[in-house]
Design goal:
With 280 residues, this protein is of the alpha+beta class. Helices cover 36% and strands 31% of the residues. A hairpin with a 2-residue loop joins strand 4 and strand 5. Helix 3 runs parallel beside helix 5.
């Protein structure tokens, strides 16, 4: 029994030791930055100098570097961006670099699932790369840092800082294009879908049916090709107003269009309504 007690104490002690938490040598950081209308998320691990010489020694000049520690550094864009004259589609990219004494190549790589560098480099996965001159800083930076600098509505500089070195890559975002499209759409007034959505909401919530009728008529008039689902809602609005003749006329049009489109659900709905409303 005594031996069993000591074995139990040992097992519990071993379990407790296995739960000890210690700080990561290269802490993880996640940075989120909105540039214009584009969301950019950066995820990376941050090694420190700890008395070591970094560039040209710990990080050699020439070979591809993971640009951080542990898993590859990741950068995610919510919309298409332009880097080095190339368009990168929305998504996540790995950030690699080739440090040099006077200049760096900063690389955006389409495969962001590696632990550090890829086992085999695939040049076809280089989505964009830029060359940056090296700026020397008077005050050394102990811990590896990536920043978003010189922020504007249309661009941001991705800065890489460590030891006495600063390099950067400019990321351009399509803010002006998106804003102008939004302005043009807004100034042109509501679309047919906007009128349709408003009419359906008024119908569902039992609000002003005369207003709903005006909106559904406007939505129908703005379409190049008549839509059976719009005429279906028009028939329901007329029925809600107590206008059976208007409801029947709209339902017949919806039925005809649904039959042509091969939509059996709307065919059945209209047939049922027409029967309820006493259509001949």
């Amino acid at each position: 029994m005594r031996n069993y007690f000591f074995l139990l104490v040992f097992a519990l002690s071993a379990t407790a030791w296995g739960q000890v938490n210690t700080p990561a040598p290269s802490p993880f950081q996640k940075v989120e930055q909105k540039v214009g209308l584009t969301d950019i998320t950066l995820e990376y691990s941050r090694p420190s100098m700890k008395g070591r010489k970094v560039f040209g020694d710990l990080v050699p000049y020439g070979p591809v570097w993971r640009t951080g520690a542990n898993a590859n550094t990741k950068i995610t864009f919510s919309s298409a961006v332009t880097i080095g004259g190339k368009t990168l589609e929305p998504g996540t990219y790995a950030l690699y670099s080739k440090p040099g004494e006077k200049s760096w190549e900063i690389i955006f790589y389409s495969d962001a699932t590696n632990w550090g560098n890829p086992r085999q480099w695939d040049e076809s996965k280089v989505a964009a790369s830029v060359t940056s001159q090296v700026w020397s800083m008077d005050m050394p930076v102990e811990t590896f840092t990536i920043t978003f600098d010189d922020l504007s509505n249309n661009s941001v500089n991705l800065g890489i800082i460590w030891e006495n070195t600063y390099v950067r890559a400019t990321i351009e975002v399509p803010t002006d294009k998106a804003v102008m499209a939004s302005i043009d759409q807004t100034m042109a007034g509501p679309s047919g879908n906007d009128y349709y959505a408003a009419a359906v909401y008024y119908l569902q919530e039992g609000k002003d049916m005369k207003q709903a009728q005006q909106w559904i008529d406007k939505a129908i008039s703005m379409r190049k090709d008549p839509a059976f689902w719009m005429y279906r809602q028009k028939s329901l609005i007329h029925a809600k107003m107590g206008d059976k003749q208007g409801a029947i006329a709209a339902a017949k049009t919806s039925l005809e269009l649904a039959e042509k489109a091969g939509n059996k659900d709307y065919v059945a709905l209209n047939q049922k309504s027409l029967k309820e409303w006493g259509a001949k």
